[in-house]
Predict the structure of histidine kinase.
Amino acid sequence: MESTRSARRRSRRDWIVDTAIFTLAVLFGLLTASQRIATPVVPSWLFEVDQVVGALGCAALWLRRRRPTELAVVLVALSTFSELVAGAMLAALFTVAVHRSKRVSFAVFLLSVVSAVGYVVLRPEPDVPPSLLLMLGIAMQSAAFGWGLVIHHQRQLVTRAHTEAQLRSEQAQMEARDAVAREMHDVLGHRLSLLSVHAGALEYRPDAPPEDIARAARVIRESAHQALQDLREVIGVLRAPVGELPQPTVADIPELVAESRRAGMDVELHHDVSGAPPDTAGRTAYRVVQEALTNARKHARDTTVTVAVGGSAGSGLTVRVENGAPRHPRPAHAPGHGLTGLAERVELAGGHLEHGPTDAAGWRVAAWLPWPA
């Protein structure tokens, strides 16, 4: 990542930061040089060499983004005898702490501490105690190094927060897709099963009376039209805000049963709901009845199906859909995902779902949903 960043061209912000760091290093060197003019260095040639090294060190700072570690090591080594390169060395130490791992940064920092000890030994100040000079140098290096670590840590936090935000966004997208998939399965499965029943009847009864054919064709047309309408509503979930689309409730169950009766199913409805249940419980109860009727239409359409919905505030909302043994059972096949998704939907609503064969070789689906008082 760092090599990719250093390889690309500097942005405006990079130029501003680099110029500021270069300027500070130059000012630090000029300030130190002005003090040395008042207090000449012995031998005199050392001051001239020091100025050349300091100038080269400041100019090398323009390479700090490409080779931060190598540049820092070189400048730390030069600072063992050169005081005018100290500003550039502090800038390089700061850069390593920002852009490199803590392990590399601490290694370079420890090397700078050794260099500070070497400077005190090689170039002692007559008027300043060596311990004070060493403490001053280490304090400046620690400040530059610590500042770089703080920025490095902040950048890691920003990167981590960005990654977590992406993960949350992906998770939200997956949950939205799962919700849309469940809606499409529940809604379209019910409608398409109606189409399948009546299309199959027309296929196996080509000699049926004209009025029966007309009735079956009308149901097919109405079911196909309603399936398209339902599909538009489900797809609208991807565009509309949450809660904006109309959702079915317990009050819509009688119409759902009436559709199945018009499709030729024998359905008995026992509706005993006192009051209006919460939206989540009512919508989930509707989906339970819808999925159970769809399965009964597929596997036991020649039997009587009993739908019982009841409950009140405080006791909860109960749903039970039961059918008898089919007179013409279909061959066994692998179970689908309808009941699994239905159980997940009920659990998300805070309830529980049970399903399985009855003593009379039929099938029963029962759910309980919470309805606070």
